[in-house]
Design a protein that fits this description.
- This protein is an alpha/beta fold and 356 residues long.
- Helices cover 33% and strands 16% of the residues.
- A six-stranded antiparallel sheet has the order 13-12-1-5-3-14. Strands 7-6-11-10-9-8 form a six-stranded parallel sheet.
- Helix 9 links the parallel strand 8 and strand 9.
- The two termini are 19 Å apart.
Length: 356
């Protein structure tokens, strides 16, 4: 997204009525609003939001959408915020909300939750992207979490630099679609014949779909990669290595003794690259997947392993660090008012969010 552009709140498909009713909110926030409304007490507050950890922020536009659509008088609120993908330092103010507290008291759980979730995914993705640069990173963790989180997580990964996501839902917020390879299940459906499965994929998929085939079905990645390349020629964009961490590929067995031979190891990648090059298939790219983390990618890159792209999954949901966000009232009716240890901390990087 270009600077100054924010996603349309409608894209998030929020359950507005239930959010307004406090259905998804911690009960004490919903009851706080009830008290203020019944007492006809509407103090003007400044709410300040920050993360305690260095991060690349995500969920800002989603949080703004929650405030726009689910507060009780958005026109009375003044919101300043960073942008999705911005780098933030520990305790740096990322969002402020100014206005009558009764208008948005019930929403704190919601905007803090989306900020925490999307920032975790975005930061973990950015760290992987930086470790792999200039290699491509594909965002493949959809199967490791509930389907409902796909749209926002995919956008967070996109903003953080992932070049592809695995589902259409993950790509929907920026108008793209998921990417993928010839999977093990399709190979199994054709009797375990990777070449036939790849041929069928090439026959029925549009020409603009990159044809990348998994080649570890028989635990003989070199032979399978060569067979697929000979069958498809220039149609084959790449092969993907995904050997299980409990297996040793056939090509690696004679070379064992000085390295950990299981899974997708450095020697296996070299074996496949060298075999493809010798056979004249220098154009075929190598994608690796299966347990790749920032540290593992960094090691591969330091050792100049000939990987063209990394498919990264569950580590993007975990990674290192906690990305919880905190919100504090720091001013009431124009005067400082905050719990001990909290104070108003202005940030000139924040930009005013348009009310329309």
């Amino acid at each position: 997204m270009k600077p100054g552009a924010r996603l349309d709140p409608k894209i998030f498909n929020l359950p507005v009525d239930r959010m307004k009713a406090g259905y998804y909110s911690d009960k004490y926030f919903a009851r706080t609003r009830e008290v203020l409304v019944q007492d006809d007490h509407h103090p003007h507050v400044v709410m300040q939001v920050f993360c305690k950890t260095h991060a690349y922020i995500g969920g800002i536009d989603e949080a703004i959408a929650i405030l726009k659509l689910c507060s009780f008088s958005w026109e009375d609120l003044e919101v300043h915020a960073l942008y999705d993908g911005d780098e933030v330092q520990p305790y740096e103010t990322a969002l402020t909300i100014a206005g009558p507290y009764s208008a948005f008291a019930h929403l704190e759980t919601l905007y803090l939750g989306v900020l925490a979730r999307r920032t975790r995914v975005g930061t973990n993705t950015r760290r992987v992207v930086e470790a792999a640069r200039p290699k491509e990173v594909m965002f493949f963790p959809a199967r490791h979490d509930h389907w409902l989180v796909q749209t926002g997580d995919g956008y967070a990964a996109h903003v953080a630099g992932a070049i592809g996501v695995s589902t259409d839902a993950q790509a929907s917020w920026w108008g793209s679609e998921g990417v993928g390879t010839v999977p093990h299940s399709l190979i199994a459906a054709y009797g375990g014949d990777t070449v036939v499965a790849a041929q069928k994929f090439a026959r029925y998929m549009p020409d603009n779909v990159r044809l990348i085939s998994l080649v570890d079905f028989d635990n003989d990645s070199v032979a399978t990669a060569l067979a697929v390349a000979r069958s498809l020629g220039e149609k084959l964009y790449g092969v993907r290595l995904d050997t299980a961490g409990t297996l040793v590929d056939k090509s690696v067995i004679p070379q064992m003794g000085t390295f950990v031979p299981t899974g997708v190891n450095e020697r296996l990648v070299w074996n496949v690259r060298e075999a493809l090059d010798r056979a004249g298939f220098q154009h075929v790219r190598i994608v690796v997947s299966g347990g790749f983390t920032v540290e593992r990618i960094r090691q591969f890159e330091e050792h100049l392993v000939p990987v063209d792209a990394y498919g990264v999954g569950s580590s993007l949901f975990h990674g290192q660090g906690e990305f919880d966000f905190t919100a504090d009232v720091v001013k009431v009716d124009g005067k400082p008012c905050a719990k001990v240890g909290r104070f108003y901390s202005p940030n000139d990087r924040l930009e005013l969010v348009a009310r329309d």
